[in-house]
Amino acid sequence: MKPYHQTTAYTRQGMAGGFMDWANQPWPFKRYPDAPPQPLGEPRLPEASFWPSLLAWPPAPDAQAPPLDPAGLAGLLALAAGLTAQAHGGTYLRSPASAGALYPTELYLVASGLGWLADGLWHYAPEANAPRLLRPGNLAGAAAKVLGGRPRGLSFLLGALLWRSIWKYRTRAWRYCLLDGGHLLACLELALAACGLEQHPCLAPATSGGELLGLTPEREALVAGVGAGETVSEAGPEPPAWQPPEEEPLSPREQSDPTVAEAAALGLGERPGPEPDWPGEPAPVGAARLHPRPPEDGPALGRVMLARRSRRNFIPQGLNAAQVALLLAASLPMEGPLGATVLLGPGGDLPAGAHRYYPGDQALALVETGDRRAAAARACLDQMWVGQAALSLVLWADPARLDAAAGERGYARAMLAAGRAGQRLYLAATALGLGCCGVGAFYDAELAAAAALPSGAWPLYLVAAGPVKGGAPV
Questions:
Q1: Disulfide-capable partner of 319 in 96, 105, 323, 461 (CB 3.0 to 4.6 Å)?
Q2: Domains in the chain: how many in total?
Q3: Is there a single domain that holds both residue 129 and residue 186?
Q4: What digits encode the pLDDT tens for the residues 346-385?
């Protein structure tokens, strides 16, 4: 994956001019003329409490959740990928964050043995908060071959419609597709747990997933999936060949990018890839131990997920150590493929500077003193609001470590994990009444220097958080 990451790195000297072809902007919703959505009725949101849900890893099924039914599935889908608001320009916002509000990630589900929903492959229509049946039949066995593990009553699959991101971000689009996939994955995992469902995520699905969904590889890529619910004993026979229902084009002149398509296909295999072992580094002597203590009377998970927005009107005010501890524990509750550097400004309990975060020990080690936020803002294409945020979480990867643990698929795993961590930071900030906004566009080498990253590290994502004007009411 090194050639793709290196060729899509931004530099000040290499940034070319361009324009947005607004007349050819992709439509935000997939449209199947012959597959109307099937209403599920009024959604019932889960009642799980926010902080216990967010801080648990792996996400633990809520033992108090009622059995899943149509209203429960409607609530689950609304939290995972549903519409939450309409911006002033008319753009619909959704539960997961998305670069440029382009929402390239599509959500599919395979149902088996539910009784109240026909067996088959369904596509989620967020504009209706309802699924549409694409392919009837018992496909639980086929989904299990894509995601690994036993056949289950529900299997969720995440596809990235490449043109939605290529339209704005061009060859760098695959980065955004993976980050956005991680955003939705985080929402889906939390929603499943809140609905009382066991889950088994897969960040390296098998190539047969594209065939199961009827995807055109250069147009839409399967990025991740989650098997959920109880196992089913009867998976059904091998599904016959099928022809996907007709789909309307995303825009008048839908286009592809061979570099993006090649990157999306890199590392895919005939079998789903198991989760690699990601041993973490212990915190060095002298690192500051954090002690995340969530409030006892926190809000409901569903309320926070629907209230999440991107807010960047930061004010010059620091964070206390308790707030920093909760934000970081929520973002990175486990070891994984990522490194994490935290840029803190003055005015809080912790010293200003660049700190390395160690998830296993929940500790911060000061790497460089001094306020480095302005340099990070300049590296983020001179978006100076970044420098006003009290905290910036810079997520990065060691390419040699990725290769050793996961081969060619390591890069995609890391980017998905960065999106997952970013979405969780969004949610934690929302619950604390703080603003939050992610940045995927930056001069790569400049951001690495501003954040004092280790030599050779690749910055993947910056997520800024802190107090904002007027607060962020839940």
A1: 323
A2: 2
A3: yes
A4: 999 999 999 999 999 999 999 999 999 999 999 999 999 9
